[in-house]
Amino acid sequence: MRIDKLDIRGFGKIHNLIIEFSKGFNLVYGENEAGKTTVQWFIRGMLYSLKGGKNTKGGAIPPLKKYSPWKGDFYGGSIVYTLDSGASFTVERDFNNNTVKIFDSFFNDISDSFKKSKEKGPLFAVEHLGINEACFERTVFIGQMDTKVDASGGRELVDKLANIRETGSEEVSLKKAREALKDSLINYVGTDRSTTRPLDMVNLKLAELEGKKKELFKEKEKIFEAEEKLRKLSEQKNRYEKKREVFNLARKVIELRKNVEEVKKKKRELVLIIKEAEKYEQERETLSQQTELCNGVKKQYEAYSKYAKDDPGLINILYNKLEDALKEKERLCKKQETLMQEIGEIERSLEEYKAFRSFEEDVDGRVQNLSGSIKELEQKKRDVNVTALDESVKAASYKLGFIKVGIGILAILTLLSGICTSFFRQKAVFAVLTFVFALLTLVFVYMGKAVRDNLQRLDHNRNILLSEMRDIDRELSAKQEEIRRIFSVAGVENEGEFIKKKTLYENKVLRLAELNGSMDELEREMDENRIYIEKIKTLMLDRLGTCGIIALEENEIKSEHVKTFREGLAKYLEAIENLKRLNEKREDAAKYLQSLYDRASSLFGESFAKKEDLLRSLDGMDLKINELYEKIEKYSMEIQNSYGFTDNSPEYHELMEKIYDAEFQSAESYIENLLSELNGRIDEIVLEMSRDWALVERGCLIENEIQELEVKTAELEREKERLLDIGKSLKTALHVLEEAALEIKREFAPLLNQKLGSIAGFITQGKYSEVRADDSFMIRALEPGTRRIVELPFLSGGTVEQLYLALRIALAETVEDGGEVLPLIMDEVFAHYDDTRVFSTLKMLFELSKERQIIFFTCKDREMEAATEVFGKDLNVIKLGTC
Question: Rounded mean pLDDT of the chain?
Answer without folding.
Answer: 78
